[in-house]
Amino acid sequence: MKRRSRKSSETVLYGLDPLIIRDPYEIVYRHSYAQDSPFFAGLTKGKLLGSHCPKCRVTYATPRSHCYRCGGATKWRAIPKQGTIHTYTTCYYGGEAFLDETPFILVLVAFEGVETLFLSRLIGARPEEVRIGMEVAARFSSTPSFRVTDVWFEPKARP
Q1: Which of 24, 79, 94, 128 is least buried, going by the fewest C-beta atoms within 10 A?
Q2: Contact, 106 vs 93, CB < 8 A?
Q3: Number of folded domains in the chain?
Q4: Do 127 and 101 touch, CB atoms closer than 8 A?
Q5: Residue 14 CB-density burial (10 A; 0-12 exposed, 13-18 middle, 19+ buried)
Q6: 4 lies in a domain?
Q7: What is the pLDDT along the chain (159 residues), one digit of tens a residue?
Q8: Domain range for residue 103?
Q9: Can you spell out the DSSP letters for 122-149?
Q10: Spatial separation of the C-alpha atoms in residues 101 and 135, rounded to whole Å
């Protein structure tokens, strides 16, 4: 009977390719939108809600409870459903929710009378068609899930 030396056994172990184990799992999270709940409820009614500071007269596209200028409490305000693309990027990799849409386009939308930008997906345009300044319009899911994906933008139809 032939015995292996300890050295050759260690070499075999240390020289292995990395082990890959597939182990899918699912977790259900209980999550609260807290003070941002009206924003998500608004999406179910086809409305974009932002925040407005009455003191500074600043409107924010994404909700915030307090003004970043004066620190005062903000109030909910409807923002326009139409705007223009401030900037954009094409994403070739995405999370599980976007696998069927990859590649997809993310846009920062500017609205008249609103100081900050709104991040969302652009649907209905190929990457080579997208331009800074392009007019876009918000669209809302007919079966809302209370997620940011309940709203997206499409190129505004030309008359």
Answers
A1: 24
A2: no
A3: 1
A4: no
A5: exposed
A6: no
A7: 555 555 555 566 677 777 788 888 888 888 788 888 999 999 999 999 999 999 999 999 999 999 999 999 999 999 999 999 999 999 988 877 777 888 999 999 999 999 999 999 999 999 999 999 999 999 999 999 998 899 999 999 765
A8: 34-155
A9: E-S--GGG--TT-EEEEEE-SS--SSGG
A10: 22
Q: Residue 114, by phi and psi: left (phi above 0), alpha (psi -120 to 50) or beta?
A: beta
SS3 state at 36: helix
Contacts of residues 53-61 at CB distance under 8 Å and 24 or more positions apart, as own/partner, are: 58/115, 59/113, 59/114, 59/115, 60/114, 60/115, 60/116, 61/109, 61/111, 61/114, 61/115, 61/116, 61/117, 61/118
- Answer for the pair 86, 117: CB distance below 8 angstroms, yes or no: yes
Q: What is the DSSP letter of 99?
A: G
Residue at 108 is within a domain? yes
| Count of alpha carbons within 13 angstroms of residue 3, beta-carbon side | 3
- How far apart CA 14 and CA 96 sit, in angstroms, is 34
